[in-house]
Amino acid sequence: MEFRRKRRSAVEIGLIPMIDVLLVLLFFFMVATTFRHQSDIKLDLPKASGNDTVSQTQVINLYIAANGDLKLAVGDAGAVSSDQQTLIEIKASLMALSAEARQWPFIINADGKASHQSVISALDMANQLGFHRFSFAIDNTHAHE
């Protein structure tokens, strides 16, 4: 009796199926990746050395204190109420303004120690009401030191 070993075929890694799998994975990750869009809030970033002045009769100022207290002034900067306001009261005041007032500069006067959340909440509320010309007040008295 003659016993012969069967010839085994050489083991090969199929490159074409591997390329197919890699292309499917690549396609999956391209489709599944979400592209982050920046917020629709348009900001005029302040520059400390600038001397730009805005007419005080057509401006909206929102003051945010370090403890989160809010105050709103529309028009003349001297007309700030001494009473603290809630975000709901400010929203009602802003909703009562005309459509023309929504084009006025909206200046956020936030204390340096105010929480980030209070500033973002105010920006989001104003953006939802149709205000888009935001800027931040700065203290440029120490800009040249």
Layout: helices, strands, pairs:
Layout: H1 15-32, E1 43-44, E2 60-64, E3 70-74, H2 87-95, E4 106-110, H3 116-128, E5 134-136
Parallel strand pairs: 1-5, 2-4, 4-5
Antiparallel strand pairs: 2-3
- Extract low-pLDDT stretches: 37-46
Name of the level-1 CATH class of the domain at 43-136: Alpha Beta
Average pLDDT works out at: 75
Strand order of the largest sheet: 1-5-4-2-3
Task: State the helix count.
Answer: 3
Instruction: Quote the distance from N terminus to C terminus.
Output: 104 Å
Attribute tags:
rod-shaped; Nucleotidyltransferase, domain 5; alpha/beta; 5-stranded mixed β-sheet; 145 residues; 28% helix; 3 helices; 14% strand
Commentary on this structure:
The chain has 145 residues and is an alpha/beta fold. It has a domain at 43-136: 2-Layer Sandwich (Nucleotidyltransferase, domain 5), CATH 3.30.420. The chain contains 3 helices and 5 strands, in the order H-E-E-E-H-E-H-E. Strands 1-5-4-2-3 form a 5-stranded mixed beta sheet, covered by helices on one side. The longest helix has 18 residues, at 15-32. The chain is rod-shaped and about 110 Å long.
Give a short summary of the structure.
The protein has helices spanning 15-32, 87-95, 116-128; strands spanning 43-44, 60-64, 70-74, 106-110, 134-136. It has 145 residues and is an alpha/beta fold. The protein has a domain at 43-136: Nucleotidyltransferase, domain 5.
